[in-house]
Amino acid sequence: MKLVSRLRGVENRDCGHQQSVPPPPPSTLPGGRRLSVAAAPQRTPSANVTAVTARDRSRSLCVERLGLATLLHPAAIPTRDLNRRRASSALSSSNDLISRRGVFSRRHYGSVELLPQLDASGQDPGGRRFRIENGDSLGEKEEIFGSPCTPVLENPEFQTRWYFKYFLGKLHQNYVGSDMDKVPFFLSVVLTDANHQCVPQYRAILWRKTGAQKILLPHTPNKPMTVKQILSNFPTMEKLEKGPKEIFSPEIQKDLLLLEEQEGSVNFKFGVLYTKPNQLTDDEMLSNETGSEEFNQFISLLGNRVLLKGWDKYRGGLDVKGDMTGEYSVYTIYEGHEIMFHVSTMLPYSKDNRQQVERKRHIGNDIVNIVYVDGGTTQMSQFNPAFIKSQFTHVFALVAYDSSDNSYKLVVYSEESVPLFGPSLPCPPVFKIPQEFREFLIVKMINGEKATFNTPTFAKKRERTLDMLIKDLYSDYMSDSSKVAMLNRRAFSDVLPDPPRSSRRKEEARQVEFVRIGQALKLDTIVKGDAPTSLATTGLFKRAPWEPQCFYPDFGHDIVCGDSWGDSRLIVGTENSGVFVIEDGVSQRQIFDKTIQANQLNVIEAHGILLFRAEKGRDSKIYVFRLSEFEPETQKEVKSKSDLKDHKLERTRGCSMYAISKPGGSRLKMVICVNRKLTLMQWKHSAAWTAWCPASDTDTVEGFMYLREFQIAEQPSIITLIESTVGGNSDTCSICVGYKHQFDIITDGSGTAQRLFAVQEGTKAHLVSATDLYEDEEPELLLCYNNTCHFQKLSETNNTTEFDFHWNSIPKDIVCTFPYIIAFTTDTMEIRLIINGNLVQTMAMPKLKLICSKNDIYFATTAPEFFHGKMERLQMDQQKVERESMSPPASPHLSPETKPLRLYRIPLNALTGVIGPYDRKCVNETDDSNENKAVENLKSMEIKSSRASASRSCTASPTIGLNPQNHLLHKS
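Given the sequence above, the corresponding structure tokens read:
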């Protein structure tokens, strides 16, 4: 009761003011959730679910009053507080948009503009600034490019809702403890097989007030990890005064599921506002009784017209009993998300109410609004977000129809505090195929609403809710005398250990009850319609841009390194079998025998040379060969150690690593590390000279010229060569050097090392990579250590970590291909958006090894040939319940080590968008009749990619290649 009283006091303090937008009816909230437990319809308790206790009711009240009522209704926050918070966040959001990404953000995701925020009476309504995304922002006029990415959902729930998907209904362990600052936390650990790929892994969730942190750790048979080892992989959790205690009560599953639900709702509601020309206020717009024929056509494109009375699916806060919110509405499903549209012309109209409060109550309280502008695209310039008097709506999608060519144009306004989100608009933002426009618009709106929940206003409310929930749970489980014995039985024990024989029967009974209650909770969540989209039964035949293509089906050697040679060949170095050339559709061919082990390898096609580092320790050297020696017509026999003598590069004896400049630069440079000395070399011919006189560039080792040496403090683990564009001097460069706990930058000319970034003191650091993101204008490095990615500009000395993001697994390699960034681990491929770090896909692949990413991305795995179609994923999810058991997966009968390696390729053009994103067709999920057509479309749309024009730079936008077919795809 003390908690309830305290929460009521908070509610009264936060909500005692006049609201600018009428609130929803007392019984509902955006998303269709109930405000109070008492108002909810009575549900017959399931025989398998424990009755709701007073503690559960108080927690529900905590979430609904403190979390949802204030979180989902910032209109309920005093105006002075909103303005103050908005002002404090303006600087950081501007830094995010302009400083952190610079030209990149302005080109692809719009720029922050100070719009004339005046209403019809000439008054300033609050000074909100909006980011404009219209395909015509600064920098976009200089280049012509299509949409850089396929519309994909960011942080999709089948990827992010770990506890529901991987823990609930399975045997797992939960712990409670407090960190060094006495802040309580909960930890959940499960041992599971990743998508049944014979890859047993630990999944761990650390529940804190800032949100759930997730990590995926490899499992070593016969060597289980301790809780302490698992916690050490989370930032600031390496040193704890006391170890966490295990919770054996099965009720903890219900509490943790409640914590996970704070990530956001599964379903969405969007406002659709119909406007006529010269309407400058929301009162005028909301007073339109009916829409035009073109508007009705647009509404039918969004979804299906449904009768609200008796509606039993997601209702989005609309009345489904007495037509109080209109007789009809528009509803659809996209990738398992139910969406209800609040269409202004379908909501109740009142001739006596000038403000149309019944309409404003719903549309004004939607985070994302579609504003349909009647009269054609020329009317779009008249719109200003200030016309809509709502502090709650953060994203406006402005839509207009052009009858001259039956196309739709889209412009997006986002309140400046909203983090960047995709997909970015094509240039120009015109869509001529209605279904493509529908998919793009829905994905943009869903991503926009998710991004809005990360604004300071929403994030603080969510953190406050989680803080009180976790403290409440901590107090319950640490002080309840009935649970003490269940807490102290074992601490810092091995995860999922075998119980002692004396208590095995009792332990097995506890495990059975634990799993039974978890499965009942899971079933109840599904029945209520709140399940994540992993169990969805919609979404047809949409191919992801990262879908791999099998390049070589059976390679019998472990690969150490490799690089691509042209469009269809690989040169790979193996562990004990020499070096091979692998060609698509042709048998592998050995070029160096097993006496030569290449540890690093590069194909420099611009100069026709093969560069590789062989042997180890003091005997390690770099060798240079002409590629022409390895053509099938010219190679007479497999080369051995005796053939290396004349190809050894001087000054490289004992080298531990080397780095070369990026392809496409004016000159090839190479930096070589020997102990604590870096040697800089340069190819004597420029790329332009070689292209003009290829027959004259026939050098091998003599082609490299010594430039200078640099002494460094200790032997590095990472070196990256960065060509400089300062002052237009392409002959200078910088070298990023990674040591144990820091990254330094060495500038050619001064030769002195300066601290670039240091890992937080006390953190165990494992440096992964330093990747040069920008090819021009604003040099920036992506520094990856542990499972953290940090963006660091070379022109700045501050080490702000405000925009860092974290991988779910600790990567071994990082690949940047705008707009995606991909992490390769030993058994997973994790794909995120580089602009905001949002997760879009994780794929489990045993014995995964990145080979190269110079052109297309090549990798090896023992996973069978696969195509990630949605139907296959759905079938897997539907069969998942049958395959699940209460015990962790046993060791696989067939070890992945016995399987042959398969080599796969992900075409770069599919990722960057040079091949139009809509070659991967997606039908309207609400129209099952298109299913067969979709299959035929997929079969007929295998278009060979042109790789010459693709760009992996963040600022250099994907450009249209010479392939006329690509050009036509982009124009469409």
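The longest strand covers residues 184-193. Try to locate this feature in the token string yourself.
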